[in-house]
Fold this sequence. Notes:
Blueprint: H1 3-7, E1 20-24, H2 41-51, E2 57-59, H3 61-66, E3 86-88, H4 91-105, H5 108-111, H6 116-119, H7 122-142, E4 150-152, E5 161-163, E6 167-171, H8 173-183
Antiparallel strand pairs: 1-6, 2-3, 4-5
Amino acid sequence: MSNFWRLTPVAAPLIESVEYHDVKFNGTLFNPSVYMGKPSLDLDAAWDAIVHRSRPTRITSEMLKKLHKEERPSLIKFMDVDGGGYMGTLDFTHQLHCLNVLRKHTYYEYYKDTESAILEGPQAYRTHLDHCVDMLRQHILCNADVGLVTNDWVKGHKTPYPDFSNWHRCRDVEKIWEWNEKYAVHIPWERLTRFGDEVDLEQPDGAIVS
């Protein structure tokens, strides 16, 4: 593991536990993926299984400092009887959520009466979509993949055709989920009660606080 991850103050609490493995992507246009295709119950179930798999975990005051976050009174806390600390979630879960929102937007007519983001109303939905697009942009550029893509001459194409089916060294997401399950705070949402000393953050109309 590079020294960068050992030294950076924004490293996540589990970065030392991350394992890697080599994966060959299927970059073909007609990849028979369970995450692709027209809307169906099976397709939605496949996405739900990865979008909603992660569980809240505990962030201590020490971890909060490493994340460059202040102990502001608006932060959601766990009750002392549940171990205390602040509620945290894995960042890539939000990225999957955003990708799923955009996927559903491509089949708007199918999801317009059931997707919670759409039911927020036109203005909030537009803001939500723009937020997701820009969050994914930031993550892609932050993790800029420097793998090289080769090109072939393909029948029916007059220009070079890129081959996106390449090998990548990936974080083992199953191991990350195992870590999350081990350190998850298993309590019902109704136990995330207000203690009486919280101060709600102000937000502009239609904005999404981050």
